[in-house]
């Protein structure tokens, strides 16, 4: 009546992929989750949708929030406005306007120069110089060499120190992988963000206008669909997967493949991963408001070992996170190595010993297959792992989802999310995304840190 336009949420709940009634409702959380919500609110000034989806796994969320808070707000080599700007640069590489918008606000809040937001060319030369590393880390980290590191550390007045560069690399990898989580879980923008609201008057007149302001949309009742029946095929899917895990365990106990055979299986899996591509593979031009934060918009993911290119395999026993990367990060940016290590471990070892409706299941074989498949796509090989297990445990629709979320997250669709593990809980699919996020981040870090180590030696 007063002519005030009242925004209505465009989406329902924190995720476009997970029905709102199946997410954890604020007010119904337990004491542990409540503390995490409070911590998230204190750190970010809002309870964001990433937190509301990640809270399916409180132990991981706690580690994630602690790490992110340390990277953005605690003492460190880079000034605060640089940190948020690097977050913008990294998220923009994957056209993740959700994260870009959050950090634009944070960047201005900590005193960043609004002119920098008009485009990367308006930022200081030092940050512009980071553009090349940003694009390679996001799309083809195996191409990073010690020469790229040298260029950043030796460019006279715009040079980076080693400590600053480590901070920047961790931020870039953090936001590339967080973009994967955002798209992989279909995170919706909050009501106050671009794309999160509309001002259209409600089209249904059977509820009061004040309901809209209270966040009630009435749509659930109108569009209530009949209860979905679970297809028999997807029930069999779970049983079949458990049976395969059992058979693989028995084969492991009986015989072990030779080193040559293991190497052959890795090469085969690496080649096969090239032929896994999303069906929605059309080129999409990045939106102008996001693409202005990075250069070379045509540069994107290309397979690790596509025809005519030979990039040597990255062998984990030559350079691993545990033996090399961790200590390098911790030495140059104290405590961050420890925080990242804890986060990797929690994601990799997280289990509730359940699979869909089954309890008391050892899922370690499945978790390892997912992690190692991602590293295999990045050309990283574990000598003690039998890559033949991947094809047994991960079916094609699941591989399409994994590769899309990890390599081209902006192309992830609800159809891809729905098409794998149809019988599993949404919390289990979110758990898969945590594995994807951390395996991707570690793969990027390994290539960057190995190049820095080579430069230093």
TrEMBL record:
Gene Ontology cellular component terms for the protein in this record: cytoplasm; nucleus
Any one Gene Ontology molecular-function term assigned to this protein's record: L-leucine binding
A Pfam family annotated for this UniProt entry: PA26
Alphabetical list of InterPro entries matching this protein: AhpD-like, Sestrin
One BP term from GO: regulation of response to reactive oxygen species
Location relative to the cell: Cytoplasm
Catalytic reaction list: a hydroperoxide + L-cysteinyl-[protein] = S-hydroxy-L-cysteinyl-[protein] + an alcohol
Family named by the database record: Belongs to the sestrin family.
Name of protein: Sestrin-1
